[in-house]
Amino acid sequence: MGAGTSPADPAPAGGAAESVQEKSVRERSVRERSVREESVREESDGGSTEQGGGSTAPDRAAPDSGSTAVEPDSGSTAADPGGEAPAPRRTRRFPLFTRDTARPEGGGRAAPRDAPAPARQWPLLTVLGAAGVGLLVVALDPFAEAFRIGTILIGAALIAGAVLRWVVPSVGMLAVRSRFTDLVTYGLMGTLIVLLALVAQPKPWLDVPILEDAVRFTIR
Prior knowledge:
Layout: H1 13-47, H2 117-120, H3 122-140, H4 146-167, H5 179-198, H6 209-219
C-alpha cells in the first residue's frame, strides 16, 4: 500500500509557492480596487462644497493611484462663516438704474439752518418773484407797452438768476445743474427774451437791420 498523507503533513513546496503567489495577487488586486474607489470618491468630494460651511473638502493624495489631487479654485470667493454674502465688487461703470442724485455745486442753503425757510431760499424766491411780476404785468396790461415791459422783466429775472448763480456761493434750489450749465441756461434764455421784447412790433425799441432783411427774405 502506498504511504498516505495526513492533513498535518506539510504541503509540497510547489503547491505552497503557488498558493502564496495567488494570495498576494488577490490582495494586490483588492488593494488597487480600494485605492481606485477612494481616489474616485475624493475627486467627487473635492469638487463639491459642503452645504453648511461653504468650504471645500480637503484633498488627500492616493498612493499608487496615478491621479492628481483636485485643488480648489483660487479665483472663487467663499461665503462668510456667518452666512453673509460677500460685499459686491466696486466698479467704475455707471449703474443701470439711477437711485439717487448728487447735490449740484453751490446747491446748499443760502442762509444758516436756524434762519426761516424763505431766507434759506431767497435767491430762488427773488427770481420767481421778478418773473411773476412780469407775467402779471403782461396779463393785466395796465398801461401802454405793458407787454414789452413785462417781457423785459421776465428776461431780466432770468439774467439776475445767472448773476446770482455766479456770485453767490450757495443759492439753494436755484442750482439745478453744474454752475456752468446754469449760467449758460439762465443767461441765454434771459438775453433772448429781452431781445425779443425790444424788437417786438409795432414801434420796436431796438432796430436791427439784419432781422428786417431776414424777415423780408423769409416772406418772399
